[in-house]
Amino acid sequence: MYKFNSPKKRIDWIFEQYSDPNLLTIEDFVEQVNVCYYKYSVDLYQDRYVEDIEEQYRGVFNKLNLADDHDLVIVDIGGGAGFEFEQISKNNISYKKYYYIEPDSAMVEKFSDRHEIGRERVNVCHGQFADFAKVIAEENNKLIIINSCFHHLIWVGEFLDLIKTSTEEGDLLLICHEPVNNYSKSPMIYLNYFLRFCFTDIVPRKLCIWHSARAKKNRNRWTQINEELIATKIFRRRVSPLMIRRIIDYGANNKGDWKLLKIPREYDEGFWTPEDIRGYLGDGFKLVYFDTYRHLGDSGSNRVIQWLNKFLANYFHEGGSAFCIALEKDSK
Ligand SMILES: C[S@@+](CC[C@H](N)C(=O)[O-])C[C@H]1O[C@@H](n2cnc3c(N)ncnc32)[C@H](O)[C@@H]1O
User: Fold this and answer.
1) Residue nearest to atom 13 of ligand 1 (CA)
2) Inter-CA distances, 217 with 45, 213, 315, Å
3) What CATH architecture applies to the domain 47-181+271-329?
4) Which residues of 78-92 are buried (b: 16+ CB within 10 A; e: fewer)?
5) Residues near 191 by beta carbon (within 8 Å), at least 6 away in sequence
6) Is 297 in the pocket of ligand 1 (CB under 6 A)?
7) DSSP H helical segments within the chain, as ranges?
8) Cα of 77 to ligand 1 centre, how many Å?
9) Of 57, 96, 134, 295, which is the most exposed, with the fewest CB atoms less than 10 Å away?
C-alpha cells in the first residue's frame, strides 16, 4: 500500500546518490531534470497514439453530462501541448473560463503556438498547481482535469491536500490516462509480452540491433539530456535513461521497472493505485466514472495490438494498464 506522507522517498535516495545537496535543493533538482527532459522531448507528446484516450473522454463526458453548462470553470493541471484542451472542444463542452496550468516553458510555448490563446476565456498559468491553488479555490462549478500528469507528481499527499482545500460541493475531479500500478503483477502483462514478441519489433529493439532512424534519434536525445544535466551540475555523473525516465514519470510502475534501479527498501514509499487516491481524498468525494484500458499496454502504431486492446477492454473492465477516474465532491 502506498505511504502518502512517507518521510523517506525514492527521490531522496536518488538526490543523495546522483546530485549535490550543497548546490541545490531537492525541489530544484526535480524541476531542472524536468525542464531539461521536456526541452528535448516535447514533441513526443504530440505524436503518441490517442484514439483510446479519446474514447475515455467521450465516455466520461457522456456520464458527466456537461455540454450545456455555460458556467463551468475548467482547470487543466499539466496542460502540456493541449491534448485535454482539444478534448473539451471535440466533445462540445461549454465553459466560462479555462485555466491552463503548466510549469514547463517549452510546453507553454507549444500550447500557445498551437492554440489561439490570448483569447478571452483561456488563462495561461505558468507554474505548478500549488502556485495557483488559492485563485482556483475562489472559483465555483469547477471541472479539474489532470491528464497524464498525476504520475509526474512526487509529493502526492500534499497535492491531494490542495485539491481537497480548493474544491467545493459539486466540483468534479477527472484524473485520466494514468498508470495502473498493480498491472506489473497481473497476468495480463505476460500476455502483453507474449503478443508483443509475436507481433512487434520488441526483441530487436530491446537488443539494440534495430538501427532505425527513430532509435538513433532516441539515443541522441538521452545523450543530450545527460550531457546537459552534468554540465549544469544537476547530476554528478551520467545516469541511465531509465533513471531519468523514472524521475520524470515518478509515480509510474505499471511495467515494474523501478526495481531495476535497486533503491533501498527504506526509501520506497510504494506506488499508488486509483483506490489509494480515492481513499486519501476520503468519503467527501464520490465516484462517478472509472475505467481501465490498454490491457496490452501502449499500442503505438501497431494495428494488431490496437485491435486486441479494444477487444480486451470490451470484456475486462479491470485489468488495463491505464485508468481514467472521475470523482465529484459531495460534501466539505
Ligand atoms: C506527460 S505531460 C502531459 C501533458 C498533457 N496533459 C497531455 O496529456 O498531453 C505531463 C505534464 O505535466 C506537467 N507537470 C508536471 N508536474 C506538474 C505540477 N506539479 N503541476 C502542474 N503540471 C505539472 C509537465 O510539465 C508536463 O507538461
Assistant:
1) 78
2) 15, 6, 38
3) 3-Layer(aba) Sandwich (3.40)
4) bbbbbbbbebbeebe
5) 295, 296
6) no
7) 10-18, 26-41, 44-47, 51-64, 83-90, 105-114, 129-137, 156-165, 188-199, 202-206, 213-231, 241-248, 274-281, 303-315
8) 7
9) 134
- Distance of CA 226 from the midpoint of ligand 1 (Å): 21
Place of cell 500476455: 191
Q: Whole-angstrom Cα distance, residue 61 to residue 101?
A: 21
Residue 74 near residue 52, CB atoms below 8 Å: no
Helix, strand, coil % in the chain, rounded to nearest 5: 50, 15, 35
Domain spans of the chain?
10-46+184-267, 47-181+271-329
Given the C-alpha cell 471535440, which residue does it identify?
Answer: 90
Closest atom of ligand 1 relative to the 146 alpha carbon: 6
Nearest CA to ligand 1 atom 1: 148
Which of 292, 234, 312 minimizes the C-alpha distance to 30? 234
Print pLDDT tens along the chain (332 aa): 899 989 999 999 999 999 999 999 999 999 999 999 988 887 776 668 899 999 999 999 999 988 788 899 999 999 999 999 999 999 999 999 999 999 999 899 989 887 766 566 899 999 999 999 999 999 999 999 999 999 999 999 999 999 999 999 999 999 999 999 999 888 888 888 888 777 777 666 666 655 667 777 788 899 999 999 999 999 999 999 999 999 999 999 988 999 999 999 999 999 999 999 999 999 999 999 999 999 999 887 788 889 999 999 999 888 999 999 999 999 65
Q: Quote the pTM value.
A: 0.92
Phi, psi of 144 (to 5 degrees): -95, 125
